[in-house]
Amino acid sequence: MRYRDAGVDIDAASRAKARIKRLARQTFNPRVLREVGAFGGFFALGGLPRDAVLVASVDGVGTKLKIAFALGRHSTVGADLVHHCVNDIAVHGAAPLFFLDYLATGKLHPDVIAEVVKGMARACRAVGCALIGGETAEMPGFYPPGEYDLAGSIVGWVRRRQIVDGSRIRPGDVILGLPSLGLHTNGYSLARKVLLEQAGMKLADRVPELGQKLGDELLRPHRCYWPVLEPLLRKGWLKGLVHVTGGGLTDNPPRILPPGCTAEIRLGSWPVLPIFELIQRAGRVPERDCLRTFNMGIGMMLVVAGREAERVTALLKSKREKFWTIGHIVKGKPGVRYVQA
Fold it and tell me: Which of 118, 133, 162 is the last residue before a domain boundary?
């Protein structure tokens, strides 16, 4: 018996890895010292300030992958993965340096692997991040046919004195919200359960209130906020940032709030995207569950001092960036308090 008879096709893996190399090379910069394919990725740190701190994060795309499988569209989830990771370190003021991915499947399909990595490479190039390696695993019998799992790891850097961790947040600070494009990469298990199973909708259905097919809506990209945040971080105007991911608007802000501070968020101060209203109505999902599961149309929260709010909003306007003042920091225990606008 050969390895192929056990379900592992080394030739297919070699073809996939050759395509990955070509795509990864498009993201390289002078700091990358070796091609993809060595036992490790090499990235030179020379030129960074002496007080540079490395910031790392690992994440995945969740069950949004199920939508990609069903539609046979895979490049968007590759980009989603990078955007999610970039946002996660950006909230601490870190600029991306390099990225590694992990993709595991029951049977390797080089075309699918290449499409996923193409999305990653495109997203990496857009933010100056090098894709320096990863792992592509073929695991027969472990995944259903046509499915795979996807995860990524990013490393970035920030000067120690410029780390954004929320420690300077005080009562009276203003909370601004930047718009999301949709579900991003969180809440898909509930969305699929409600829309596809309970409501019996199909991904090919055109939904008037969404203005497009359901599948297209559910594959809307996870937005990358780095281009908007970078100039604000450079000026030192941000006290805290919240990437609204798993846990929604309720569970993410406490991750950066210091003792004595509560985030008071005004419901109705921003337009909730139609997809969230559809899920809530079709599934009779309690509002508190929606707020703790979805971003509800706010993908990034900025906490700024009241005296800096005018300058921050002026810069956002100059970039034609939509935003809403969605709340304030008040005295209380770290957590979120909702009030009506």
Answer: 162
Q: Which tokens belong to 296?
A: 């509800």
Query: Is residue 123 located within the same domain as residue 226?
Result: no
SS3 of residue 65 by DSSP: helix
187 CB-side CA count, 13 A: 28
Is residue 150 within 8 Å of residue 61, measured between CB atoms? yes
Q: Is residue 5 pLDDT above 70, yes or no?
A: no
169, part of any domain: no
CB 276 within 8 A of CB 191: no
The arithmetic mean of pLDDT across residues 299-312, rounded, is 96
Query: 119 and 191 share a domain?
Result: no
Per DSSP, helices labelled H in 48-150 are 64-71, 75-90, 110-126
112 & 220 share domain: no
Distance between start and end Cα atoms, the chain = 69
Handedness of CA 157, 65, 75, 302 (dihedral sign): negative
